[in-house]
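Z., the sequence and structure:
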Amino acid sequence: MLNPLPQSAQAIATYIPHQGSMCLLERVEQCDSQRIVCSTGSHRSPHNPLRHAEQLGVAAGIEYAAQAMALHAALQAPSTERAQAGYLTSVRGVTMHAMRLDTYPQDLRVEAECVALSDSAAMYQFAVYADTTCVLEGKMSAVLRVEV
């Protein structure tokens, strides 16, 4: 890992394109060259921008995982480079083990493990947990653009 671990949502937002309440991750618990583990309580917020009809469906966990993936890729890049934007190209093999995220009182743990990473693309497998319960898992790929 080339960059220091961000210790707050505000610090995480300096590495990913999402800002304000759309930056869903709050802490980096672990990170190495292959894997990142983040945690957050943002799923409980009534102001979460992904809520619909006063609920946060489990599929919103895909965005949490995408942000963990983007953060991991950014932390692996030289500190002179920052992610400008990334575009999910596929999400597959998704298994949803719950209906909603907002019903869990525990912080969410978002894990993303790099399967392949280049300057222009990334593939990760991911899982979202509430305590020890896996609520969502799958794989995703993205095209990365880097602003120098």
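The chain has a mean pLDDT of 90. The chain has two helices and six strands.

Let me know what you think.
H.
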